[in-house]
C-alpha cells in the first residue's frame, strides 16, 4: 500500500536494535483517516462478507481494529494481556513471549464472545516475531472458529514472523513489509 | 443516552464489589455501531469544530476513542501505561492509582504529539474513581494544551470520580451515570 509506505519513509524513525518507530500515525498518535484507508485496502484482500468478527490484541492494535471493524459493520474483540497466574475461568488463553516487555504474557478472550460459528479476521498494526498473531490464532482454534486471515499494517519481514505464518498456510496480508531498515534507508519487499 | 442505558440494563452484569460488567459491547467485545452512536451523542455536547485531538488511556478506551476520532475526522492519542521506573525522556507523565490492578501506574504521552496549540477532548469508556481521567487532565495541563472536556460512556456515579471533576470545573459529559447497581436493578442518574 503506497500511502502507508510513503508515511513510513517520511515519518518513521529507525532506532538501534531494528526498532522502527511509527508512533506519529500508527501506534501512539493515530491518524484515523489513514486507518480508514488501511481498512479499505484490507477490504480488497479479504472477503469481508464472510467475516463475523475482528480480533486483535491489546493495546496498539485496538485503534486500527476498531476502525476496520466499524468500516465493515463488524463487531470486534480485543484479547486482554495478563500475567499467567490468577486467570479466572471461562476464557480462551494463549501464552506468548513479548519481545517488547521481554517476558511471557497471556492473551485472554472470554468464551462468551467467540464461538465455533465465528469467521475471524485478525487485525494488527505491527508484526515482528509474530508471537501475538500466533497466540490469537491459538485462541481462534481453541474456540473452534474459522480463521479467515490476518491483516497487518506493517510487517518487519526480516524478523520472520510473517513468513512462518504464511508457511503454515495462513492467509496473511501485510500492507507494508519492511525487509531492511537503516536510518534514511528503509527497504520494502516487492508486492506479491 | 437511552440506547446505551438500555444495553446496560439488558446485557450488563452486576458482580460483587460494585463491578458492572459491560464487556459484551463496550470493553472486550466492542459493538462498533453503538460506538458510532456514542460518537454522535458526544457531538451534541462538545464543539467538535474546535477539538484538535482526542485523548484516551490504554487499553479499554482506545476502541471508543478511535471511532469517535474517526467520526469527527480528528487524530487521537492513547496514553501508554508503564511502571514508574525506567521512563525515557520526552514524555508527559502522570502517576495514577489503578483500582483494577491495585497498584500505581504511570500514564505516558510523547511530547512530540501533544502541544500547547492542541484543544483536547478526553474520551473514555468507563469512569469509576476517575483516576485515569485525572491523570489525562494532568498531561493536558503539562502540555499547556486546552481541555475542551471529557466524554465518558458509562460513569459509576456512586464512586464520585465524575462529580469531583465537575466540581473542579471540567466539562464532563457521561452518557449513562449509574447511581446504584444490584443484580436486576440498575438505577441511573436523571438527565441534566
Structure report:
Chains A, B: It is found in: Cytoplasm. Chains A, B: It catalyses: XMP + diphosphate = xanthine + 5-phospho-alpha-D-ribose 1-diphosphate. Chains A, B: Pathway: Purine metabolism; XMP biosynthesis via salvage pathway; XMP from xanthine: step 1/1. Chains A, B: Keywords: Cytoplasm, Glycosyltransferase, Purine salvage, Transferase. Chains A, B: GO terms for molecular function: xanthine phosphoribosyltransferase activity. The structure is a homodimer of 192-residue chains. With 192 residues, chain A is an alpha/beta fold. The first copy, chain A, has a single domain (32-179), classed as Rossmann fold (3-Layer(aba) Sandwich). Chain A has helices at residues 2-11, 32-45, 62-71, 131-142, 161-167; strands at 13-15, 19-21, 29-30, 53-57, 76-82, 91-98, 103-110, 119-127, 146-156, 172-182, 185-188. The first copy, chain A, has an 8-stranded mixed β-sheet with strand order 6-7-5-4-8-9-10-11, sandwiched between helices. In chain A, β10 (172-182) and β11 form a beta hairpin. In chain A, α2 (32-45) crosses α3 (62-71). Chain A is globular and about 50 Å long. The termini of chain A are close together. The mean pLDDT of chain A is 93. The interface between A and B is medium-sized, with 31 and 31 residues. β3 of chain A pairs antiparallel with β5 of chain B, so a sheet runs across the interface.
Amino acid at each position: 500500500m503506497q500511502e502507508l509506505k510513503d508515511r513510513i519513509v517520511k515519518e518513521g524513525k529507525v532506532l538501534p536494535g531494528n526498532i522502527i518507530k511509527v508512533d506519529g500515525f500508527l501506534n501512539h498518535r493515530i491518524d484515523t483517516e489513514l486507518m480508514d484507508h488501511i481498512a479499505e485496502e484490507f477490504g480488497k484482500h479479504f472477503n469481508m462478507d464472510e467475516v463475523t468478527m475482528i480480533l486483535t490484541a491489546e493495546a496498539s492494535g485496538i485503534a486500527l481494529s476498531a476502525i476496520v471493524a466499524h468500516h465493515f459493520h463488524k463487531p470486534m474483540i480485543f484479547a486482554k494481556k495478563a500475567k499467567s497466574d490468577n486467570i479466572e475461568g471461562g476464557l480462551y488463553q494463549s501464552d506468548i513471549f513479548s519481545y517488547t516487555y521481554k517476558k511471557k504474557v497471556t492473551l485472554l478472550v472470554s468464551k462468551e464472545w467467540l464461538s465455533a460459528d465465528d469467521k475471524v479476521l485478525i487485525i494488527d498494526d505491527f508484526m515482528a516475531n509474530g508471537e501475538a498473531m500466533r497466540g490469537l490464532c491459538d485462541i481462534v482454534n481453541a474456540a473452534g472458529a474459522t480463521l479467515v486471515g490476518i491483516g497487518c499494517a506493517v510487517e518487519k519481514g526480516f524478523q520472520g514472523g510473517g513468513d512462518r505464518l504464511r508457511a503454515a498456510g495462513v492467509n496473511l496480508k501485510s500492507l507494508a513489509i519492511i525487509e531492511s531498515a537503516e536510518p534514511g534507508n528503509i527497504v520494502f519487499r516487492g508486492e506479491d
